[in-house]
Structures are given as structure tokens and as C-alpha cells.
Amino acid sequence: MDVSKPLGGVHSRLARRIAIWIFAFTASAGFMFALFAYAPEKQFLRISDVVAAPFKATKIPQCGNFTGSNEIWAESQLKFQHLRDDKFTIAMQTYKRPKELNDTLNALLAEKIPSLSELVVVWNDLETTPPENYKSKYGVPVRFRASEVNSLNQKLWPDPAYETQAIFLCDDDIYYKPKDLEFVFQSWRKFGRRRMTGGFTRCAVPEPSGKWKYSFCSTDEGNNYNLILSGLAFAHISFLDYYSSEDAIPKKIRAYVDEHFNCEDLAMNYLVSLLTGEGPLLVKGNDPYVSYVPTNGISTKPGHIEARSQCLNDYNKLFGCMPLVNETAHIEPGVIIS
User: Fold this and answer.
1) So what's the pLDDT on residue 335?
2) Which residues have C-beta within 8 Å of that of residue 16, sequence separation ≥ 6?
3) Nearest 5°: CA angle at 211, between 210 and 216?
4) H and E: helices and strands count for the chain
5) Where are the transmembrane segments (predicted)?
6) 3-state secondary structure of 169
7) Model pLDDT, residue 59
8) Which ranges of 227-263 would DSSP assign to H, the alpha helix?
9) How far apart are CA 222 and CA 201, in angstroms?
10) How far apart are the C-alpha atoms of 96 and 126, rounded to whole Å?
11) At 175, which helix (H) or strand (E)?
């Protein structure tokens, strides 16, 4: 095409070049508009596609002694993609703490949480029959699931009746306020699907001896954290499925948790960070989360810190590496801070 003809009145070389550039840009823009307007939709990756299918059957990274089955992990990643991702399920573990349980249920169900699909109480008291299922005043089904054994692993079981990809793991003595819980869920959808995402941070800290110590994340060490405990955390159901699978390391982890009656939350962090290479994500609400101080909780027993530190070091031996990833960023309403 002879682009000089429309420019008959332009005699300056510089002006001619500018006019040619404008013409070329206009033609290119028109071509790109036509391409996007008329090309088949399937040729383009939409944001909704990314949100709906965050797992692409990635392989298990090499990490020390960890030689997991890629087939089992691939199945865990792909088998739940038909479940809803715009709603979430609460899996709340309880054991002989009726007051804390009732207070927490009343607080969570007193207001409407738009994305809450179901609240499942994991009933670990084998000596007492759980209450009847019911619906909250906002129509949320509350289901009491009686465990076959009193095991901390029960909360991490991928219940076949779950209808959502997002599972909010919590205990009966700690909770986000309803509006904040909705905010945390939406933050999980956008940023946290491949992470343990919640509000209960802890740290695994290296010691000069080469061992690791369980810590409450002192501010003297900066804003680092590498654990989000499952007492208040979202996890994708695929991680629960792999944790509960017959792969060698998860089986050993579950046996360890049952033997020590502790540290299932640390194990979940190990697995998630190993499988994704990503650290956890701290999300704060407008208000601090509510935490009761139980009189008979595991964390109140003497030697709790030492026992948790022992879990870290035992897991390091089991995995043959330290997969936890330090993070500094966190999300709160209106801001992302790193």
C-alpha cells in the first residue's frame, strides 16, 4: 500500500514520519480489535478459567527422602474440579467442649455469610451421641459427623459429601467473625488456593544446633512466618485428599499424628509447601479472630512447645528436607502488605 498518497499536503520529513507511524498504529489497532472481536472464544484464556481450574496436575518436587506417587497426587488434584469454588465448607473439630462449641456455632451462624455452603462438625467424642443436624436461620445446613475414631486426622478427611473445593478448617474454640470469614474466603479464592490461608501464624525457627524450634513468631525476627495452623485456615480439598491417601509418606504422617495425638496441622503445612513450593498466607479481618482459652486443650498441657518442636524435627527426618517457606506478606481489608 502506498501510504504517501494520503499525505500529499505533508512536506516535512519529520511530519511525514509521524503521520506514517500514526497510520501504522491505527491499522495495527484495528487488526487487533478485529482479532479479539471475531476469533473463537476458546482460543483465549479467560480469568474465570484460571479461577475454576487452579490445579494442572503438577508433579511432586524432589525433596530429600520424599518419593511420593505422582499418580496419586495427580488424581487428588483433578478429581474435585467439578465441585463449586464460589462457596466453602466449614469443617470444625470438637471433643467434649460443649460450651465452646455452642458459643462458636452461635457466633458464626448469627449473621449471614454469603458464601458458606455447609458447616460440618467433626464429632470426635465417641462416648456421646452427637446432636441432630439442623439448618441455621439463614438456611446453612449444620451437619454433625460422628468420627469412627478419636483422631486429629478426622478433620483433614476429604468427606465425600463435601460440595465445595474450599474447606475452612477450624476448631471449636476459635473463629473469625462472620464478615471477616467471608473476606478471608474471597482472599483465598484470589490469592491462596495453593496455600494454607488463614489467621493463626506460627514459626519453625532453625537453631544453631541444626535442629528446629516451634515458635510464636517473635517480631524480633522480622515479620516472617512459615506456618498457618489448621485451627483457623482454608485449604483446598485436594490437599486433604492427598494427606488422607495411601501414598507412603502421608500414611506415616497419619500414624505419627495418632501416636502423638498432635501436629496434624504442622504436617499439612509441610505437605502443602512441598507440593506447591509456596508458603502460607496470613489474612486478617477487620476484627481480631476470637479465641477462647480452653481448660483442657492440647496447647495448655506442659511441654507443648517442646512437643511441637519434636514434631518439626521428626518430620524433617521423615521428609529428608525442610519444605516450609518463609513469608512476610499478609492481607487485610483494603490493603496487601509485604
Assistant:
1) 80
2) 4, 7, 10
3) 125
4) 9, 15
5) 20-39
6) strand
7) 87
8) 237-243, 248-260
9) 13
10) 10
11) strand 174-175
For residue 245, give the C-alpha cell.
491417601
Whole-angstrom distance, CA of residue 41 vs CA of residue 287:
43
| pTM recorded for the entire structure | 0.82
Distance CA 154, CA 144 (A): 13
Q: Which one-letter amino acid corresponds to residue 23?
A: F
Cell of 76: 487428588
Name which of 320, 230, 310 is nearest 274 in CA terms: 320
75's grid cell: 488424581
Buried/exposed code over 114-138 (b: 16+ C-beta within 10 A; e: otherwise) = eebbbbbbbbbeeeeebeeeeebee
Q: What is the pLDDT of residue 206?
A: 95
CA dihedral 80, 81, 85, 90 (to 10 degrees): 0
The series of mean pLDDT values per 10 residues for the chain, 338 residues long, is 38 45 44 34 30 62 85 94 97 96 97 98 97 97 97 98 98 96 98 96 95 83 87 98 96 97 97 95 96 62 88 96 95 83
